[in-house]
Structures are given as structure tokens and as C-alpha cells.
């Protein structure tokens, strides 16, 4: 039998490879640098662990996450593989012990944090060790275009070029847009790498975006629809996690919470309760999920919009790992944009970020945020949007996402368009979508009174139109360039380049708009 298949059975207990695994392993075994882009859950670890086990010497795995290293090393050790990790969770004395053993050739696989690569003790070990492979996990961290840029990933190249014998390099990531891919190859110094990209399409996931007026009520509806099944509710802030978890518990929904502000004991209890199905709902920040292998998650709700598509794809992708149909529902609210912009403003407080690069990094983060916002507002196929984002060329429709299944009706919006554009004009193009909608619908909000907006002739002229319909109409008019956004931190709704066709020419406009319907989850139970 093929050596790698033997190892797969003997150590990992699996009888066949998943898509992409065999090609990746063969390339590495053949001595070729390899760059694999595979979605979360595809099984990347095995792709570098099997070559490592078949190598004569030792293999290094550069990994950014302390918790992930620990998990991986623990499961390797349980399988009988000699493995260790070196990162900030160890004391200097413990690191010395690991390095001593490493120098004595006692390990097959060593996980190492990128910050450790160029430290004295590690370099000394590396100079004398027979290193077969250097694998870089989460390789997108080397790129400023990625969502988790780690300057210390740039040390990988320096480290490798200082070795007496060049090992084979492997780079792995779940998220790589075209710019990130180029950076990974260039900045890690991969030598004409063999590239493996397995599809990002998770066919069993149903993607949906909702823009509810009352998010809490919407969330409760979803959680009730899915009662008896496991789900994760992601929130943008710790405060939101606490509040939402409490709200669910108040309504007798067993929920656990998880974020970096809780003590270790509560975090591991929460995780345990959720993984072992003692509670159905996990309310968490993005701190939850990495390295957690729970296959029967039936739904992931984003109570807040994340900051970029990479994060969204990864977090939503924790649903349906068992291949059963699962739902990924994003609840969008305008406040989410402000929260994310606030996070971007605060990026400078991260000590790892070199000050000189800060503006550039923030600019890139804003671009990624825009990609995320566009996902929330696209009327096209959501799956196609995701796949295109990750560099694939999908069919225009999947017929299995919220947008594809939404029933559209052709609506004559000629008069509504005139009303909306006049309102934008009369408000001097100085306000965002929310305020313009409030004016048109005749809201009693104090902000309108204080700014004299309730005196505009367009005040209340669309009072009979539902908020959802008005929002959809404005979105359509923006897409068609009758309206536009000023951009910037507080985007204003302004007249678009085709505005004159509405205001002057009184052009007839028919828009395909989502039918007004009462929403239900299409989950068969
Ligand atoms: P990734 O790093 O790509 O997110 P992992 O390496 O953590 O994924 O693998 C995800 C899960 O799939 C793990 O539980 C792993 O044991 C399992 N897995 C990997 N390869 C196979 C395979 N060939 N057959 C069955 N299960 C596999």
C-alpha cells in the first residue's frame, strides 16, 4: 500500500483522502514548495503532518495561534507522534527543555510561533537540525491585504534563508484573495510553488442576509425555528455577547457565552457545554471557533456584520461541517458599519502594528469592509458573491441562497424615485440613508426636528411605504447610479450621475424588488 495512505489509516484512522489532500501531500513529498488554499474544515493539517511523519528529520510548523498549536500537538501526541510546541505560553525554562530535546532529535514535528523563529535558542537548534519541511499555517498572515497581518510572519523568509540546507516549504491558508496569494508566494519566498486550490463552495450551506428593523426579535425567531439544534450567534462586541446571551436565557433558551473578557474557567465550561450538546446556542465574539471541531452546528447567525468577507466566510463556515444542510444568516444593521470603522480606527493600539504602516493597513481594512457591506446589500446570488470574492468563477445563480430564493416582482418606481431623489436634493445631499428614509416616512425622531428636516416638502410623502420596501428601492436606485454614496466614514446619500433622468426627464423606472413577505426559515425539521 501507498506509504501516505498507510499513515492516514494507521495514525489518523481515515480510509481515503479528501479533495486536494493527496495532490498537496505528493507535491511536498516530491520536494516541491507547495501553496494550498483550502477552506476551513477541508483538512489542511493532514496535508503537512503526513509528509512530516514520512520525513527523515524534523518538520517545523509556523502557526499564529497558541490555542491551535496546543490542540494539534495534543492530538498528535495522543496518536503516538513525537511533537511539541514553542510559544509564549511556555516559560523560558520550559522552552529550554523543549529545545534541548529538539536538539537531541526527539521530535518529529515542532509547532513554533513566528516570533520565536529568530530567537537565539531556536536558531541554534535549527542550524544543526535536519529540517525536512517548514510549513506555514494561516499563511495569509504574511500579507497586509489579509485580515490578520502579522509582521513576524515576514521572519519566515529570513529564517529559511539562514538555514544550512533549504527545507521544502509548504504554505496553507483558508482565505486568499488574488493579492494575498501573490504576497504569500513572494514574501514567504516560495520557490515556483505547486498550487492547490480546492473549491470554496460549501454546497450544504444556505446563505442569507436579513436587514430587520428589530434584530433581537429576529434573532429570537431564528433561534426558536431551530430549537433542538445547535447554533452559534456571533456578535461584534463582548457587551453584545453578554446582552444577547442574557436575553436568550431570560426567554428560557439555554445559551452559553464566549469571549476574551471571560475567565478561562467560564470559557472552557461554555465550550464544553456547547460541544457536548448540553446547551444549544453559543453566543460569542470571533474569539470562539478556531480549532473547535464540532460538526453538527446547524446554523450560524451573525447578529452583527463582521469586518470583512474572510472573517464572515470562516465563521459562517463553522455550520454544517457534517455535510447536513445548514443555515448562515447575517443580520445587518447600520450601526455595524460604525462599529467596524471604530475597530479600524483603533488598529493602531495593536502593538504589533508598525506605526508607519498604520494608514495603509487602515485603508486596506476599509476596502475589505466595503466588500463586506456590499455582500449585505447585493441583490445578486450570495454564493456567487462569496465565490467570486475568493477568486472563483461561479455561475450567476445558485438557487440555494436567500437572494436566489427571494421572489422578485417588477415594480413601477417612477414616482417613488422622484420623491426619493427630490428629498436627497432638498436635504442638500448632506444626510445618510437612514435620515433620508426617516424624512420620507415622516419619522418623529428628534434629530429631524433639531435639524429642521421635518419642514422639508418631502417630509412624510412616503409614509405609506414600508421601511424594507423603501430601503430596497433606494438600494436599487443606487445600483443603477440614480443615487450614489459619498463614501467616507459617514457616507451621505447623494445624487448619482443618472439623477437628471429622474428629476428632469421624468423617466419611467421599473425595478425588480423583493416581494414583501413574512420571513420564515426554510428548515425542514
Ligand atoms: P482545516 O485546518 O483545513 O480547517 P483540519 O485539518 O482541522 O481542517 O481538519 C478538519 C477535520 O477533518 C478534522 O477533524 C480532521 O481530522 C478531518 N479530516 C481531515 N482529513 C480527513 C480525511 N481524509 N477523511 C476524514 N476526515 C478528515
Overview of the structural elements:
The chain is α/β, with parallel strands linked by helices and 525 residues long. The protein is built from 21 helices and 17 strands. The strands form four sheets. It has a seven-stranded parallel beta sheet with strand order 3-4-2-5-6-1-7, sandwiched between helices. The longest helix is centred in the C-terminal third of the chain and has 20 residues, at 358-377. It is elongated. The two termini are 43 Å apart. It binds adenosine-5'-diphosphate (ADP). Adenosine-5'-diphosphate binds at residues 14, 17-18, 21, 38, 40-46, 293. Residues 25-194 form the Helicase ATP-binding domain. Its EC number is 5.6.2.4. GO terms for molecular function: 3'-5' DNA helicase activity; ATP binding; DNA binding; four-way junction helicase activity; hydrolase activity; metal ion binding.
- Coarse structural class: alpha/beta
Q: Low-confidence segments, ≥5 residues, pLDDT <50?
A: 518-525
Mean of all residue-level pLDDT scores? 91
Residues in helices, as a percent range: 40-55%
Query: Which word captures the global form?
Result: elongated
Strand content: 15-25%
Write down the Rg. Answer: 26 Å
List of distinct ligands in this structure: adenosine-5'-diphosphate
Strand runs, count: 17
Measure the end-to-end span.
Answer: 43 Å
What does the main sheet amount to?
A: 7 strands, parallel
Give me the number of helical elements: 21
Strand order of the largest sheet: 3-4-2-5-6-1-7
Amino acid at each position: 500500500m501507498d506509504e501516505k495512505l498507510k499513515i492516514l489509516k494507521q495514525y489518523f484512522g481515515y480510509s481515503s483522502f479528501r479533495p486536494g489532500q493527496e495532490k498537496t501531500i505528493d507535491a511536498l513529498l516530491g520536494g516541491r514548495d507547495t501553496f494550498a488554499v483550502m477552506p476551513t474544515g477541508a483538512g489542511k493539517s493532514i496535508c503537512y503532518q503526513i509528509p512530516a511523519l514520512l520525513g527523515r528529520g524534523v518538520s517545523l510548523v509556523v502557526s499564529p495561534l497558541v490555542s491551535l498549536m496546543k490542540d494539534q500537538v495534543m492530538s498528535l501526541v495522543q496518536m503516538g507522534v513525537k511533537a511539541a510546541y514553542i510559544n509564549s505560553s511556555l516559560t523560558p525554562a520550559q522552552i529550554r527543555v523543549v529545545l534541548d530535546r529538539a536538539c537531541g532529535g526527539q521530535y518529529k514535528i515542532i509547532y513554533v510561533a513566528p516570533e520565536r523563529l529568530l530567537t537565539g535558542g531556536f536558531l541554534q537548534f535549527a542550524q544543526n537540525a535536519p529540517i525536512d519541511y517548514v510549513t506555514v499555517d494561516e499563511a495569509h498572515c504574511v500579507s497586509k491585504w489579509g485580515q490578520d497581518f502579522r509582521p513576524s510572519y515576514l521572519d519566515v523568509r529570513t529564517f529559511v534563508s539562514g538555514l544550512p540546507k533549504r527545507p521544502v516549504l509548504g504554505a496553507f491558508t483558508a482565505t486568499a484573495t488574488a493579492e494575498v496569494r501573490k504576497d504569500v508566494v513572494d514574501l514567504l519566498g516560495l520557490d515556483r510553488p505547486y498550487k492547490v486550490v480546492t473549491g470554496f463552495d460549501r454546497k450544504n450551506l444556505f446563505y442569507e442576509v436579513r436587514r430587520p428593523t428589530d434584530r433581537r426579535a429576529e434573532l429570537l425567531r431564528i433561534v426558536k425555528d431551530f430549537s433542538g439544534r445547535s447554533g452559534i450567534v456571533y456578535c461584534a462586541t463582548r457587551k453584545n455577547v453578554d446582552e444577547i446571551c442574557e436575553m436568550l436565557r431570560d426567554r428560557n433558551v439555554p445559551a452559553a457565552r464566549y469571549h476574551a473578557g471571560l475567565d478561562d474557567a467560564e470559557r472552557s465550561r461554555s465550550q464544553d457545554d456547547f460541544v457536548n450538546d448540553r446547551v444549544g446556542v453559543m453566543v460569542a465574539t470571533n474569539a470562539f471557533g478556531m480549532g473547535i471541531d464540532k460538526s453538527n452546528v446547524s446554523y450560524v447567525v451573525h447578529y452583527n456584520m463582521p469586518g470583512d468577507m474572510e472573517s464572515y466566510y470562516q465563521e459562517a463556515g463553522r455550520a454544517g461541517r457534517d455535510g447536513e444542510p445548514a443555515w448562515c444568516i447575517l443580520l445587518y444593521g447600520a450601526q455595524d458599519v460604525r462599529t467596524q470603522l471604530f475597530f479600524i480606527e483603533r488598529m493602531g493600539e495593536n502593538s504589533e502594528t508598525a506605526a508607519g504602516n498604520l494608514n495603509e493597513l487602515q485603508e486596506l481594512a476599509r476596502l475589505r469592509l466595503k466588500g463586506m457591506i456590499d455582500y449585505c446589500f447585493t441583490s445578486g446570488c450570495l454564493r456567487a458573491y462569496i465565490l467570486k470574492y475568493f477568486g472563483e468563477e461561479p455561475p450567476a445563480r445558485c438557487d440555494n441562497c436567500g437572494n436566489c430564493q427571494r421572489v422578485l416582482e417588477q415594480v413601477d418606481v417612477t414616482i417613488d424615485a422622484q420623491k426619493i431623489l427630490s428629498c436627497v436634493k432638498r436635504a442638500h445631499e448632506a444626510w445618510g440613508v437612514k435620515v433620508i428614509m426617516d424624512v420620507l416616512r415622516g419619522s418623529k425622531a428628534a434629530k429631524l426636528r433639531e435639524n429642521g428636516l421635518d419642514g422639508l416638502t418631502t417630509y412624510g410623502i412616503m409614509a405609506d411605504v414600508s421601511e424594507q420596501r423603501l430601503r430596497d428601492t433606494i438600494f436599487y436606485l443606487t445600483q443603477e447610479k440614480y443615487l450614489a454614496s459619498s463614501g467616507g466614514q459617514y457616507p451621505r446619500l447623494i445624487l448619482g450621475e443618472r439623477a437628471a433622468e429622474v428629476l428632469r426627464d421624468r423617466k419611467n423606472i421599473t425595478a425588480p424588488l423583493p416581494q414583501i413577505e413574512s420571513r420564515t426559515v426554510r428548515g425542514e425539521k
